[in-house]
Amino acid sequence: MTTTTTARLSAFLENEVRVDGHRKVSGREKYTADVKRPGMLYAAFAASPFAYARIKKIDTAAAKAYPGVRAVLTADDIGRPRFGRQCFDWPVLAVDYALYVGDRVAAVAADTREAAEEAAQLIDVTYEELQPLLTASAAIAPSAPALHPDWNTYHYLQYVDKPRPQYEHPNIRGEFSNRRGDVDIEQALASAHRVFEHRFATPRQHCGYIEPHATMAWIDDDGTIHLQSPNKSPFALRTQLAHVAQVPIEKVIVEVGALGGDFGAKGYTVDDFPVYFLARATGRPVRYVESYTEELGTNHSRHTAEIVLRTGVDRDGRIVAHAGDVLYAGGAYSGALPGPTLMAGGGHCDLLYWVPNIHVRVRCAYTNTVPGAHVRIPGDAQTVWAWEQHMEAMAADLGIDPLEFRRRNLVAEGQPLFNGHPAAHVNPIANAVLDSLQREGHYDKPLGRNRGRGAAVTIRDAGLGKSSVRLRLEADGRFTLITGVPDQGAGGHTVVGRVAAAALGIAPSRITVRRGSTAEALFDGGAGAGRVTNAAGGAAQDAGEKMRALLEERTGLKLGEDHFVDAAGRTVTIESIARELAAAEPLEVSGSKDAGWQATNYSVSAYAMEVEVDPETGSYRIIDVVFVTDVGTVINPITHQGQIDGGFMCGLGYGRMEEQVMDESGKITNMSLGEYKLPTIADIPPFRTVLIEGWLGTGPFGAKQVGEISTSGVPAAIGNAVANAIGTRITQFPVTAERVYEALHGRTKSSA
Fold first, then answer.
1. What is the DSSP string of 508-568?
2. Does the N-terminal peptide bond of residue 734 adopt cis geometry, omega within 30 degrees of 0?
3. Helices then strands (H, E): number in the chain?
4. ∠48-53-55 over CA atoms, to 5°?
């Protein structure tokens, strides 16, 4: 892989070192599965083998009698509580019905993991199997039974003080609609020169992390609940558990160890709640570590989507009207999401383009499948796949160069984006990205036989939310930064340390970054959505600037270049100042940032990809990939490129090979990493990165997010390249050799 270089802050020119790097490569880092406590018990669960079934009876007598068993719980034993990130619709243990294969019906705590698992097998559950609703279309059919008839009674943070919305079908758990221009979109389409309609679908996919979920709970003598969890939003988890346990929020302490990997998955953890109830029932610490069969068969799936796009254009190839319908299969519960549907990307696929008349409807339905969760770039992977193929299909039919077709339809300065935001500089940034893509993607060179070139253009904003940090000067001249944001592998702790150092005017090696529990650290909204650099980095910058001002006020000296300078220009060491100022106790400040939306919040990126297809087998080879993205100030150059490289590999897996296969009973059938294929080093094609400079972002020192923007366009670029090579379009990713073969030889209806 190669990359261009970009300007960096001069304070960051020293060697970049990941602050957790030595702990991880030496094996000293502690993950939740490594944590042990005296008297610890082990948990196991009895789970439903059916996708939809009425629970008629649960007999736990044999399990309770098994040697070493300390507790066996069902929903009735714990008061039938439910949990969630916004909508508390997910029962800690199944209530009356099992709604997907793997739905937990009972929990066991025992002296050993083996005893807990054996006892769980002895729990005798009598089910009445029902006909499952496995697709979103089936779930919203007029005759479909309501999977959550009591939805209006669930605790829902968003609707505490206002009426809940009513939807056309009880299985629709969330809906939103975006409109602009002509109220009658059908009339607007009818007046267009040409109208194009394409239908797309996307699969169920797993996040692909390596470290399994694990959790441990214990309760102090004073009733304080401790939860050790690999959750990247510990303060949100604290709020959720306090509600479920019916205790004041200050009686819950969440401690986050190393997360290992995330890729969207660690924003919620199912195990925390039943493990807490087991700890409460036994009075002892309880730990649970998921197996990979559970991970791949019952956890963290991307929402499947059914997408219909209809677009009208004028004689010059400019879009005049668009109607879109996005229907997500949300799974059995919505508790894993911070909202009722997928707002990110869900219908915003045309964000870059000016469409005067538009109506997009996005719905998410309850289904008897694994609960949908945030998988990397939630919503964007589905809608960018559809929209960017839709754009190239229209361009080809109109005989317009695909990049030129995009240029003609870019939003102009002063025009609002589809979501209503009057974003700044989107048009010049997008044009600069497209110009670079055309040049670096070799669009001027003819393609050989069975070869195709495809592009995908995306836009992404930096995540919003609140973050706070503590920064203190120690007596030895070092600084400690305490943050509540976990590092889910993206280098967030290295970011906040380097930002604070730059704001202070000291060497980054002088700062120790430490994650704190919710009892020690100040509030942080959590990792995810590209918000760490923007929010937590902004808080670190604020803390660094405050500490610098405080030190200069206390000493009358100027701080910079890792030392103080007096009025005569003589240098004074930080160590000598620290001994005086922090001898009695550390000198501490706090920094914060409330990252709200700003006009310069967006980054634009694009892929150009060239493939060669073997028409006899449908297999294809990716010959060349170029990724172009605009960047602000790069804080961690190595990590910045690492996020781009990793984001591309993520997208490559989504676009080429990853798919959770579900049988007609609702069970995931490829429940190992031997069957669920993740890309490896051998799958990397030639990959080049071009960084476009000139526009600063909303992060510290003008930084922009990069954690997700390099992922969303990969499947669509693959789809476009393959379509241009074979003359027909694959409408569902991953684009496998089998699907290409079927499209070429007419075995299935897989082309639009």
1. GGGEEEEE--TTTSPPB--S-TT-IIIIIHHHHHHHHHHHHHHHHHHHS-EEETTEEE-TT
2. yes
3. 18, 29
4. 80
The token pair at 189 is: 């389409």
Read off the pLDDT of residues 206-264 as tens digits, 9 standing for 90 and up: 988 888 889 999 999 999 999 999 988 999 999 999 999 999 999 999 999 888 788 87
Residue 259 contacts residue 89 (beta carbons within 8 Å): no
What is the pLDDT, as a whole number, of residue 3? 41
Q: Is the domain covering 465-595 a CATH 3.30.365.10 domain?
A: yes
Task: Give the pLDDT score at 272.
Answer: 96
CB 706 within 8 A of CB 648: no
Residue 435, C-beta contacts closer than 8 angstroms, at least 6 positions apart: none
Sequence-ordered list of residues with C-beta below 8 angstroms from that of 421, at least 6 positions apart, any chain: 597, 599, 601
CATH, range 32-132+212-258+265-298: 3.90.1170.50
Judge contact between 543 and 470, C-beta under 8 A: yes
Which helix (H) or strand (E) is 181 found in, with range?
none
The CATH 3.30.365.10 domain(s) of the chain lie at 439-460+600-752, 465-595
Say what the pTM is: 0.94
**Joined tokens for residue 729:** 């379009």
Instruction: Kindly calculate the radius of gyration of the chain based on its CA atoms and give it in whole angstroms.
Output: 27
CA angle 357, 420, 327 (to 5 degrees): 65
Interior angle at CA 399, CA 393 and CA 404, nearest 5? 80
CB atoms within 10 A of CB 249: 12
Count of all residues that appear for the chain in the document: 752
Select from 697, 500, 486, 699 the least CA-distant residue to 590. 500
> What whole-number distance in Å separates Cα of residue 526 and Cα of residue 536?
9
Burial tier of 123 (Cβ tally within 10 Å: 0-12, 13-18, 19+): buried
Q: Which helix (H) or strand (E) holds 138?
A: helix 136-139
Give CA–CA dist 141/399, Å, rounded. Answer: 40
Segment 551-603, tens digit of pLDDT: 999 999 999 999 999 999 999 999 999 999 988 888 999 999 998 888 788 89
Contacts of 455 (CB under 8 A, 6+ apart): 388, 392, 402, 403, 406, 437, 441, 606, 607, 608, 609, 717, 720
pLDDT in tens, 94-149: 999 999 999 999 999 999 999 999 999 999 999 999 999 999 999 999 999 999 99
- Backbone phi, then psi, for 621, in 5-degree steps? -120, 130
User: Class for domain 439-460+600-752, per CATH?
Assistant: alpha beta
Helical ranges in 140-206 per DSSP H: 185-190
Delimiting residues of CATH 3.90.1170.50 domain(s) in the chain:
32-132+212-258+265-298
The H-or-E segment that residue 398 falls in is: helix 380-398
How far is the C-alpha of 243 from the C-alpha of 327, rounded, in Å?
A: 31
32 vs 218: CA distance, rounded Å: 13
Which residues on neighbouring strands pair with residue 117, listed in sequence order? none
User: Distance between CA atoms of 28 and 489, rounded to whole angstroms?
Assistant: 16
φ/ψ (deg, to 5) at 732? -135, 130
Dihedral (CA of 345, 158, 516, 81) sign: negative
Please name the residues in contact with 695: beta carbons below 8 A apart, sequence gap of 6 or more. Answer: 425, 428, 429, 600, 630, 632
586/72 Cα distance (integer angstroms): 48
- In the DSSP assignment, the letter for residue 411 is P
